[in-house]
User: What shape does this take?
Amino acid sequence: MALPSAGGACAAPLAEDSSSSSQGTDVSHQPSIRIRAQSDATTGANASRQGSAISKQTRPEHVDVVGHLNRERARIFSGLGAVDYHIDQHQIGVTPGGQNAAFNQILLRTPGVVLDSYGEVHVRGEHGGLTYRVNGVLLPEGLNGFGQELDTRMIGSVDLLTGALPAQFGFRTAGVVDVTAKSGESLKHNQMSLYGGSYNTFVPSVQLGGQHGKLDYFTTISFTRSNIGIENPSAAFRAVHDVTRQEKAFSYLSYQIDDASRVSLLSSVSYADFEIPNSFKTFDQSSPRYTTIYDLAGVNVLDPAMNWANLNDSQTEQNYYAVLSYQRTTERLNFQASPYFRYGRIDYTPDRDRDLIYQGVSEHEVNDFATGGMQADLSCDVTKNHTIRAGVLGQYTSERLDTNTLVFPVDTTGRQSSSIPVRVIDNTGNWSVEAGAYIQDEYKITRTLTLNYGIRYDRFASSFGNEGQLSPRANLVWRPNPATTLHAGYSRYFAPPSPQYVYPSTLAKFSGTTNAAANMIDDATKVEKSHYVDVGLLQRITPELQITLDAYAKWAHDLTDLGQFGRAVILAPFSYRRGRVYGAEFGSSWKHGAWSAFGNFSYVKTAARDINSAQYQFDPEELAYIRAHNIQLDHQGEYAATAGLSWTAKRDMAYIDFVYGYGLRSGFANLKKEPQYEVFNIGYQHTFSKVVVGKDIKIRADVMNLFDKRYQLRDGSGVGVYQAQYGQRRGTFFSAVFDF
Assistant: This one.
């Protein structure tokens, strides 16, 4: 039984080509590239996916209600005018590893995304700055470590929104990663999966989901064990000391109160142990034995047991979050309110003696974050040609850094003056409040021309600063015909830093030791404020082929960057007084019968001058050079490309996948760059339907880095770069997925 149309002044009917892009139910097409040109989050690009829509006449009423509420939620978070790279179940399936792929590998197959070390991805020349949303609800920002708690198995679809974002998106604006969790029909697939292969990788997981009356539920639990937890710091096939163990659990509950409202709960738990791979800049690999730098009382530095290969540094990461949402759709209003909470911890445990003799510092660090907040958004069609959207968001974050450090005293020349270490204990904390409010109007000037304009006000108050800004936004979208969409936009951005300020009192404690700061300048990181423009074209050349071209530029004050400034993998913010970023992207997707393909290419150029916060982390000579010269940012992936070709039949799937990168910076003041690399991956999957137990079994094999390309992401130098990193060598992985 079909749900009646929720017409009225605040609920316009869906456009003719609407097919609920928010649900991600289609598994037969490559992800579409689109410019959000309609308030229901659908565009002409969705026409290629209409065949996936389930007929309302044949679906149960409950599923109709779920689909209707999903569509109305998409109207609240339309993102009109933004560039939208949509990733569906098919694209996830043809990514190396499939549903076992790390979430960063899913994002990497979209234009403008560059791979870096520690699993980081950079969007359009930004180090961080990504906002993560699940079902339209903001996920509080976590710690800047290297674990990834988002589990690919819970995804129905993903949209990466970039460009000149409308007023409803604030704070982290490099891109919005909008995840739609599995719901409705996609829940009816209980699975047990076994994945493993090279590097002693073993990943069992289970997914359970279904519908019981008005309740939808889904949960996934996984365990990972591998000998390649972090990128190898050397070109060797296997890193020394690099085992990881990770546990993750995600759950989604949604209860339909009535045909117009529902309440849902998202919760996630992740716990990960990482061994830090053994390599130091100070280690001389040409030495007949090994090189130590410092003497330690009671320890024979020539004892083979003290060799660098026996280092035992490790790091534990924990992340927990919960988001409760209430959504209501009436004749006059679409509304969603969501309180949320998140807690995270990074615990770095050193190898006392070996850390002291190799780097003169042994520091136990515990960094805690806790965030609580509330988000509320609404949309209303006040007239035929005007849709008003408005919302507020406020959150409070508490950060604490506790360190217990052993260091050696030094003389006035900086040389070690005693072999007996001294202990320095420092416990500090920060707090921050972020608040924002917006209002915007989607004005349909003509049938083909739409202006989405608005304004937002943001405020950032913290233990080290207080700033605010009024930010205008505007996007113009023109669709002269169903195959062509052009857009142009301007946004004023306000991006607060994470609250990780180290106070001068902490620096003073380490004066006269082997952990002394490079200098005593310690300005707090400020809010990044920028102007951003974006223009682009989406063209459907044939019903099977579409392309997009997009260009952008950004001019920033207090440009925020992140760096690693010690053995612990905890990224800390710093900023440049002035910065600019500009670039261009090309994307394409093609579908013909069982065949589909995509190809992306991007170019980005960055420039920044004068580090104006956390200066104590940098050598005075480098600071002086950057004060007088524009430099390129270390995370600038100047050229990047991804491509893939896949063939999908009823029971079989095969793919070939390609990733290219060039231009990450290195050396003094980032004056050098890393060499280019290109990596090929292949995979095949077959489904056995006639099985004794369960519904079917999918057997899959993936070969990653097919030609065993040795490529370096980092050489251990560059502004804010601590250690060398190499990409993964060739690996073969297998999986078996049992549906029941």
User: Anything to note?
Assistant: Helices lie at 61-76, 89-93, 103-108, 352-359, 504-509, 620-628.
